[in-house]
Amino acid sequence: MKILLINHYAGSPQHGMEFRPYYLAREWVRQGHQVLIVAASHSHVRATQPQPGAQTLDGISYCWYRTPAYEGNGLGRVRNIWAFCRHVWKDTDILADSFEPDVVIASSTYPMDIWVARRIARRARAKLVYEVHDLWPLSPIELSGMSPRHPFALLCQKAENDAYRDADVVVSMLPCVHEHMAAHGLDLAKLHIVPNGIALDDWQAAEAHTLNAPLAAHLQALRAQGRTVVGYAGSMGLPNALDVLLDAAAALRQEPLSFVLVGSGHEAARLRQRVASEGLSHVQVFDPIPKAQIPALLAGLDIAYIGWQRTPIYRFGIAPNKLMDYMMAQCAVLHSVDAGNDPVAEAGCGLTVPPQDPAAVAQGLRTLAALSPQERAAMGERGRRYVLQRHTYPVLAQRFIDALG
């Protein structure tokens, strides 16, 4: 097949997040399909921005549409979204007639790309697929306090409803969305669940990479001091509940636990300042590292932390990439969440405690730290086995193709 995947924020190992479009496309190319990814030239989640124009990576064709730079979630991001959708809409004939797709996938975080995908699919007489990362407008309403009557929320709601009505197939990363989607007009016979995962060969190649010297030296020093190392690797934003982790760290400052946070994001500078101002000498915040170094980082942890806000939106389920990495690295995981699903509990690879509860996080860390290294290793082995059975990209890419019928 010829697969046209529209994802505003698509990335690659060369550019950074989002990785899912690249990994699915790479598997599809390996199966003999042709894939064209259409994405914006600027995205807040990428480490490196591509040059506008065409590019080929590992057999995957990319078309990067020029969009304005922006920071944060304000008007600049709206302009960026508008520019991307306008450019793709304008090129409907070119994309439909030159590439001649059999399948068109609308896969941006926001739902408005369904309109350009539908326009291309109709001209090409292709199957239309709507892939759901997060439920918009519900996510900005419940996570950011946006009014349901805000013009942007109303626009998203119109797009979501149109997607459920017009798509031939709906693929969701979130596992508990059936009731919500049905309430907005989806025939549930169209719905297929394809969660996030890991690329096994990339992971195996990355395991040969060494950690950068300052970070490696810091972890080695903590080991020499007999400290239990609690780590976090990923985006530093409000949804990641890192203030809760720092609150727990403050409560544990007299205990032999040290905390290592690695990543970037809107909250990184403020979190660094908080660590300094509160004198949390057992907490260190490091800049992001290349994806290839993540296995080496995680191998140096005793416990990996992942936290969430307490919000109703997670009743539809969660599909975090970083958790897949934690489990693949055989980390014992402290999971602070209340959601429709819980991979940590399902796999038996750690401990789950309530979200936004520093005392519960602190006690959970104490409990895991009190286990023997062998007991934590057994948890880690269960997590890795869970991922290998259910969440490798060859498995997920085939599930996606099977959903197309």
TrEMBL record:
Its recorded name reads: Glycosyltransferase family 4 protein
Domain of life of the organism encoding this protein:
Bacteria
List residues of the Glycosyltransferase subfamily 4-like N-terminal domain: 16-197
Q: Which Gene3D superfamilies match?
A: Glycogen Phosphorylase B
Alphabetical list of CDD domains matching this protein: GT4_WbuB-like
